[in-house]
Amino acid sequence: MAFTCASSVFCTIVPPHLLERLARHEDPELHHPARRSLRLDAEHRDRRRIAVRSSGASKPSPGADDSPRRTLYDARHHQTLPGTEVRAEGGKPSADASVNRAYDGLGATFDFYLTAYGRHSVDGAGLPLDASVHYGEGYDNAFWDGSQMVFGDGDGKIFKDFTIPVDVIGHELTHGVTQFSANLTYEGQSGALNESVSDVFGSLIKQYALRESAQDADWLIGKGLLEPGVHGVALRSMQAPGTAYDDPRLGKDPQPAHMDQYVRTSDDNGGVHINSGIPNHAFYLLATALGGYAWERAGRIWYDALTGGQLRSAADFATFAGVTVAAAQARFGDGEEKQAVLAAWSGVGVTPAPHGAPLPHQAAAPEGAESAPQG
């Protein structure tokens, strides 16, 4: 049975294969945190499956407006969630930098989706954004569990505090966007698309916050997360999948950039964190071909494809590619954008599947919303 992030699986930023490698390391300062992290991940995964099978529904949103509803909690290195409330929406900054980074990252993600695409929170209807910091002892991950964000502090040897990179926060919250839209099945190619969509919008959220063009962006996921001494720059590279790290403790980044190198494995739900490199690179090719701010045209096409109602949950790469071609044509016509989408997928060895009815135009951004951030 396939499980989805929306219905039965919680989604983490660090791939299991990295933690499994660290769990086998002879150094107890590496293998103890990794083993604890893997155990906690497995427990959350099981609880998520049971909870959704019992309830079958997400908590209702209180109604959409143009402001986030953020609540930050401190787990105080325990595993009971959410922990103690430490900062609410509009509250004063905390003395705890992790709390403030998480609060700001939730806000940056909310602002991006609202101003770029007119979306109110991850569900489109004002879902409150809750997050817990300081989860567990040396917990080597961050995750979205279907209702909230959770951040570990890292082990201090390989990983730093997971609140540091804003794209990690954007990545995990975008799993919520997928949960409430296409609900991509978290297995095989649809699972790799689920992970890729989170990488795409995580990167765009960082670019938006920094006012970076596609040409100026680093296209790295998790830059700043690795401790000094680790031979690597990030968890993943969209520009050059397979080059993010090459470290004796972590191994070499296994992501492919082309279907010729597609990895067939039963691990990690069919390699969802590995094969996501292929659609990641397709988006990079599209964004840099179109230039300018990547969220305006390339990101809009991906957002329309994800949320337009035409994408089935079990979509493979070819199906998703076909929906993006249809989305480009529906919004921009037969011009540069559509041709760039076709070229991007060709560049990674994916032939878009024929798509039936054209996608309807998505609702325009609300009056007064910026198509590009000013500042």
From TrEMBL:
Signal peptide: none annotated. The keyword Nucleotidyltransferase does not apply. It comes from the Bacteria. InterPro entries: Metalloprotease_M4, Peptidase_M4, Peptidase_M4/M1_CTD_sf, Peptidase_M4_C_domain, Peptidase_M4_domain. Residues 69-179 form the Peptidase M4 domain. Belongs to the peptidase M4 family. This is Neutral metalloproteinase.
